[in-house]
Amino acid sequence: MIKNSLGREFPDTLFGRPLRPYRDPFSFIPEGRQAARPIRRVNPGGNKLLGSLREAIEASGLRDGMTIGTHHHLRNGDQVLNTVVAEIAAMGIRDITIAGSSVHPVHEVLIPYIRDGVITRIECGVNGAISRMVSTGELDLPIITRSHGGRVRAMMCGDIKVDVAFIGAPTCDAYGNICASRGPSACGVVGYGHSDADFADCVIAVTDNLVAYPAQPISIPQNKVDYVVAIDSLGDPAQIVSTTTRVTTDPIGLQIAKYASTVIELSGLLKNGFSFQTGAGGTSLAVAANVRDLMRRQAITGSFGAGGITGYFVEMLEEGLLEALFDVQSFDLKAVASAGRNPAHIEMSADMYANPFNAGCVVNNLDCVVLGAREIDVDFNVNVNTESDGRLSGNTGGHADTAAGAKLSIVVAPSIRARLPIVRDEVTTISTPGATIDAVVTERGVALNSRYQALAPELARRGVPVKPIHQLRDEIYAITGIPRPIEFTDRVVGLIEYRDGSITDVIRQVAG
Fold first, then answer.
1. How far is 510 from 219, CA to CA, in rounded Å?
2. Across all residues in the chain, what is the average pLDDT?
3. 290-297 contacts: CB < 8 A, separation 24 or more?
4. Which of 9, 98, 262, 446 gives a 20 to 30 Å CA spacing to 52?
5. pLDDT tens by residue, 458-511
């Protein structure tokens, strides 16, 4: 057994690979060269457009024991992964690893294929019944969860070798130019698909909108795509993007947003050139709304907004409050439309966004990020991967990446959720190390980590209650009681891999 610097203990080898324990966010130095795709040659007159998905799978050379990659820009409307796996199973291919960017509840139809041995491993975050069934031992399926930047790093370093990538292409031409902002399944950008196009041995564009050459604007170019196949539908457009994303009207969420925006205002970062990222949740958008009002009043022009882009950030761009948007994933219809219309709305790959092992990623230039949490502990460690009952239920996303990169990383969360304390002695699972979290904001007050302790007097003067995180925990426990420990077996069913490839935690099977 080995123990990492966060105090988590686990075997030194799991799932056929040696494990490197997490030490700290920045000291590990990579060596070697990037993984590379096979060299190709397509002569004039060469045909990439194939007649069916089966024909494309046959041309790719996919066979037993290989790994496939997909992206999750179609989110809970995606039918590409389901369609691909059904065809793989019909062809008699087995022992396949899915190394996509995320698996969603819509993919629960894959459960019979997991039971039958068609799918035997998943190397990405999993949401929904599949993850819950793995946690309870109902499914025998190793899961390795990585951040968005960590997935690219793993592909680049050869830790993941994607044999065949199936890239959902909302619009595509017969030569493989992929456009994400047009078509019946438009999703704005395909930032996570770029990694598959860069590193997979074979790349298949799967489209439901085949257009005359050239498809444009181009998200992924033809020189990275080996084959093109048209299917009836990529998925349900109503589930691919939200029609809108809304600021919370919940009084607790609004109070949290008020405190968080005051921390940002007093941080010294809110000035011309300010860069910013939030999630798409109602409380995070309320923080963005408050920051927008501050920028208006103080005549501040920010440099960029980043990450998953919402219509709220599009409005800030078009109002002149931000000079650019770096978009890795469009969250709503306004963002999708902007991606195809605004030159300053820039599609970025997950590599450019958050890969720690390149010549500099966008998260390194973030002034502030606002993040959510399932649990936070007194060492500021954050859990976004498991529920408080110990069951795996979520992707790391860009959480650990942005927390490491931003000058100010703020976690916003209610102090109590479903009668359970959110701030506690220990989180169930460590997703993001506390060394990269600067402030925890709840409706009961703000806890500041070491870098921003100097803000406490002015925050208090502004009416923001600043409390040591242990005090915050005690106040919450006085209401909820101390949570009972979760009982786990010794069996490890999943790994939580930090963005540099080290292990912050493992997921053990829930007992009972």
1. 42
2. 96
3. 290/257, 290/258, 290/260, 290/261, 291/261, 291/264, 292/316, 292/321, 294/261, 294/264, 294/265, 294/270, 295/270, 295/321, 296/321
4. 98
5. 999 999 999 999 999 999 999 999 999 999 999 999 999 999 999 999 999 999
Q: What is the pTM of this model?
A: 0.96
Residue among 176, 252, 218 at smallest CA distance from 347: 218
Phi/psi zone of residue 75: left (φ > 0), alpha (ψ -120 to 50 degrees), beta?
left
Q: Is 237 helix (H, G, I), strand (E, B) or coil?
A: helix
Torsional sign, CA 355, 22, 501, 31: positive
Reported as type and span, the H/E element at residue 337 is helix 333-339
Give the whole-angstrom CA distance, residue 88 versus residue 83: 9
Where on the phi/psi map is residue 263: left (φ > 0), alpha (ψ -120 to 50), or beta? alpha
Question: How far is the C-alpha of 510 from the C-alpha of 132, rounded, in Å?
Answer: 10
Q: Which two tokens stand for residue 186?
A: 């438009």
Contact 313/288 with Cβ under 8 angstroms? yes
Token reading at 317: 């761009």
- The distance of Cα 79 from the centroid of its chain, to the nearest Å, equals 19
Q: Are 98 and 125 in contact (CB under 8 A)?
A: no
* Residue 245 banded pLDDT, cuts 50, 70, 90: confident
What one-letter code names the amino acid at 277?
Q
- pLDDT for 161-216, tens place per residue? 999 999 999 999 999 999 999 999 999 999 999 999 999 999 999 999 999 999 99
Angular region, 176: left φ>0, alpha ψ -120 to 50, beta rest: left
DSSP string, 256-300: HHHHHHHHHHHTT--STT-EEEE-SSHHHHHHHHHHHHHHHHTT-
pLDDT of 244 > 80? The answer is: no
* 3-state secondary structure (DSSP) of residue 118: coil
Residue 4 Ramachandran class (φ > 0 left, ψ -120 to 50 alpha, else beta): beta
Alpha carbon separation from 141 to 19, 131, 134, 144 (Å, rounded): 18, 9, 6, 10
What does the pLDDT look like over 347-373, one tens digit per residue?
999 999 999 999 999 999 999 999 999
Closest CA to 367 of 413, 305, 307, 285: 305
> CA separation (Å) from 99 to 145, 251, 381?
10, 40, 26
Instruction: Name which of 511, 445, 507, 443 is nearest 8 in CA terms.
Output: 507
Closest CA to 186 of 240, 144, 222, 137: 240
